[in-house]
C-alpha cells in the first residue's frame, strides 16, 4: 500500500493517508479533516464521517485534493546497502 504523503494546494498543506480502494484520509493543519474516495479522475467524493457513505455533491476543494493525489509522484527512496558488517 502507498505510504502517507503531503500535498500543497495554494498555501494550504494537506497530509494524505491512503486507505486502499481509492479511499484517503485527509489531514489539514494537523487535524483529521475528511475522508475522500475517487469516483473518476476529475470527480472525487467526500465520505460521511459517521457512515462512510459517499456524499454526491460537487466540491471544488475535494476535487482539487483528488487531482493533487493523482499528480503526486513519490520521492525515490535511497537504496540501502546490502553489505554485511562484521564486528
Fraction in beta strands: 35-45%
Number of helices, counting only DSSP H or I runs of 4 residues or more: 1
Structural class: mainly beta
Radius of gyration, in Å, reads 16 Å
The percentage helix is 10-25%
Low-confidence stretches: none
Let me know the largest β-sheet. Answer: 6 strands, antiparallel
**What general form does the structure show?**
globular
- Number of DSSP E strands: 6
Q: How many separate structural domains? A: 1
Mean pLDDT: 89
Describe the strand arrangement of the main beta sheet, using strand numbers. 1-2-3-4-5-6
**How many angstroms separate the termini?**
36 Å
The run of helices and strands is EEEEEEH
Would you mind describing this structure in some detail?
The termini are far apart. With 87 residues, the chain is mainly β. It has a 6-stranded antiparallel β-sheet. It has one helix spanning 60-71; strands at residues 5-9, 12-20, 23-28, 31-38, 44-47, 54-55.
Question: What is the strand and helix layout of this fold?
Answer:
Blueprint: E1 5-9, E2 12-20, E3 23-28, E4 31-38, E5 44-47, E6 54-55, H1 60-71
Antiparallel strand pairs: 1-2, 2-3, 3-4, 4-5, 5-6
